[in-house]
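Work Package 3 committed the consortium to producing structural models of liganded targets before the mid-term review. Because experimental data for this complex are still outstanding, the team generated a predictive model from sequence and the ligand definition alone, so that downstream docking and mutagenesis planning could proceed in parallel. The input record is reproduced below exactly as it was submitted to the modelling pipeline, together with the SMILES string for zinc ion.
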Amino acid sequence: MSDLLRQQFVLGYTYTRSTGPVVGRFLTELRQRKIVGTRGDDGRVFVPPMEFDPVTASALDEFVEVSDRGEVVSWCWISEPRDSHPFDEPFAWALVLLDGADVPMVHAVAAPEAEMHTGMRVQARWSEEPRGYITDIACFEPEVTQGEG
Amino acid sequence: MSEETTSSEDDITAIETPVYLTYNFTAGEATTRFLHQVRKGKVMGQRCPGCGNVYAPARGSCAACGLPTSEEVELGNKATVQSFTIVWIPIPNNPIQPPYIVANLVPDGANISFIHLMSECDNDSVHIGQRVEAVWKPEEEWDYAMDNIRYFRPLDEPDVPIEMIGKVPLSGWEGKA
Ligand SMILES: [Zn+2]
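The resulting structure, written out as C-alpha cells with the ligand in place, is given here.
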C-alpha cells in the first residue's frame, strides 16, 4: 500500500453583496473618512447604521455623522492572529463606542496588550486609500490628544 | 459638506466579500488506490462482495451492504450518459468557457456514475443514454487526478435504454446487454 495521497486546495466563494441604501451610504461615507449612523425612533444613534428600528421596526433614514474617536467598552486579545485577521501581530477585537453613537461597533484595536483596558480612549486610523469597505478604518489605536505626541 | 464636491465617484451599492476555505484533503485508502491507477491511465472500480455492484471511484465500502469493497475491477474507456446539465455561468479562474456540458457518466462495467465533462459534441443533442468515450491527456501530463481524462466525447453507438443505464457490462454495448 502506497502512502496516502494528500492535497491542499482552496474552495472560494467569490460573492459580491448588494449593500442596500443604508449600508451603502455608510460605506460611501467611509470612503470620505466619515462615519455615519442612523437615528432610531427613541433618538439612539446606531453605528454602523441599522436599516430598521430594533424596537418599532420602522425604516430608518436619518443619517447622523459621529466622531472617529471613542471608547473601548469591551475587548478580547488575539495573541495568535490567523491568516484572515487584519494584522500579523497580536491585536484586540473590541467594541468601540464612538463619540456621538449610542451603540458600540466591533473593530480591531492595535495597541500593546498592557495598554488595553475597558474605558480606554481610541481613534480611528484611516486606510491610505479608502475604497468603501469597513477596512477603510484600518484599525483603532490609542487616542492622541492635543499637546501629546 | 464642503467635501461633497470632491466626491465624483458613484455611491457604493455593492461590495466584494469573497470567502475562501482552505482544505487539506486526505484521499483515504480507497481513493488513494484509485488515484494511483488513474496516474497510470486506468479507471478502476471496486466490487461489493454482497450485492455485486461495482463502484467508481470507490470509497472502500458498499453504502447499501456496509461491506468492504476490496476486489478491484478495471473499467472500460466507454461510458453512458446518466444525466447532464449545460453550464452557462463561467467559473472564475477556470479556462473552460461556457456553454459546456457536465454529465453524470456510468463507465462500462460499473453501476454508479461519476461527474465529468463532455466535449466534441453538439450541446443541443446531448441526451440521456448517449454513449461516450474518454479522451485522455498525453501520458506525460498524467497525475493523480481525474482530469487526466480531458473530457468524454460521443460515440457512434446505439443509445442505452434508461432502464439499462448503470447495467452495461465491461464488454460494452452494441445495442444489447
Ligand atoms: Zn453491496
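Reviewers should note the following from the model. Residues 1-8 of chain B have pLDDT under 50 and may be disordered. These observations will guide the Year 2 experiments.
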